[in-house]
Specification:
By secondary structure, this protein is an alpha/beta fold. It has two domains: about 1-95, Spore Coat Polysaccharide Biosynthesis Protein SpsA, Chain A (Alpha-Beta Complex), CATH 3.90.550.10; about 100-343, no CATH class. It contains 14 helices and eleven strands.
């Protein structure tokens, strides 16, 4: 089994080799898995490129390439897909760390003949490394995982699933189709394009939702932390702030709702759970943008909410949506009492 980690990076010389080495560690742990790292450097100017060339230029499992940084993260990430020559791949970020047990995630994926598998990511300060535990796997219905992303936490032990692609692994062909899904979704408005392609907020969550959607059955799910998602003063969550992040990831859920209604026989109970979350969260994000005096974005969010409302009425989901909206509100209040991610 061969897998590729696509790693877009600019600078971060203190930590990028740590990220690469954590991927290459798989080759030491398993004779049946070959891990490669495809580094896409945006012409780093802090010495990171020179450090990587010195350390890895003779390592056949590390491919070093440079691209114009003005392409932006998401476009560079999409370019990486076109350079992958292995059956399986995922993304790696230049300051994150994957579990030394990640190879077991890959084994489970292959042995169970799935096209996608996921574990949890856990936030940690960039200066530390998580004490990763032996992973625990369980079988769970893919739609129950999706419902967790929509605020229904009853089926899983923890209430915060990852949006970063680092703790998951899928067939490369899935990711190629995922890119098309993202590009088709953003065609409809500059609002979507700005958040998803220019600020790269949301496509990563679509990656999870798309993979889970096409499974549409019980899958093997890793109930353990598979990646450290490092945070620091230059982290995306710190730089962008709560308002654009919440908006972009809400839009990713809008994508799933639209895709489900357009491609599957409508299950009213399931569909209304999705729509209830989108209405409650959408109104929250609308108000959040108003508080930050981002009136243009508020109007864009309101426009998206009205599209959801239109679909609710068209598919005769109104009463079920009202009922489930109360459940969403209760879940939001209870969530703080639950564990967010595994230790």
């Amino acid at each position: 089994m061969e897998i590729t980690f696509i790693l877009p990076t600019i600078n971060r010389k203190k930590f990028v080799t740590r990220a690469i080495d954590s991927c290459l560690h798989i080759n030491k742990q398993s004779q049946n898995i070959k891990a490669k790292v495809l580094v896409l450097d945006g012409f780093s100017d802090d010495g990171a490129w020179e450090i990587m060339r010195t350390k890895y230029q003779s390592n056949k499992n590390v491919i070093l390439k440079q691209f114009d940084r003005n392409l932006g993260f998401q476009e560079t990430a999409f370019i990486g897909l076109k350079l992958v020559d292995t059956e399986y791949c995922t993304y790696m970020y230049n300051d994150d760390v994957i579990s030394p047990f990640y190879w077991k995630l890959a084994h489970k994926l292959k042995n169970n003949k799935q096209t996608f598998i996921m574990g949890y990511g856990k936030n940690e300060k960039i200066s530390k490394i998580i004490d990763f535990k032996e992973p625990i796997f369980k079988s769970i219905y893919s739609k129950d995982i999706i419902l967790n992303y929509f605020g229904y936490f009853n089926s899983l032990n923890y209430s915060s699933l990852p949006v970063s692609p680092v703790p998951c692994l899928s067939k490369t062909s899935n990711l190629i189709r995922w890119e098309k899904e993202v590009r088709d979704f953003v065609k409809e408005s500059n609002f979507r394009r700005e958040l998803m392609l220019k600020k790269n907020i949301g496509p990563d969550l679509i990656l999870y939702l798309y993979n889970l959607m096409i499974q549409n059955d019980n899958i093997i799910f890793c109930n353990s932390t598979m990646a450290q998602l490092s945070f620091h003063k230059k982290s995306m969550s710190i730089i962008y702030g709560k308002q654009p992040l919440s908006t972009g990831y809400w839009l990713a859920r809008v994508w799933y709702f639209e895709k489900y209604l357009n491609n599957y026989e409508i299950n009213k109970s399931y569909s209304s759970k999705l729509s209830a979350y989108l209405i409650i969260s959408g109104l929250y994000i609308f108000i959040l943008n108003l508080i930050f005096l981002n009136f243009s974005q508020s109007m864009n969010v309101l426009s998206e909410i009205l599209k959801v409302v239109k679909k609710i009425f068209y598919n005769k989901l109104f009463f079920e949506t009202v009922y489930n909206s109360m459940i969403v509100l209760i879940n939001r209040m209870k969530r703080r009492k639950k564990f967010l991610t595994p230790c």
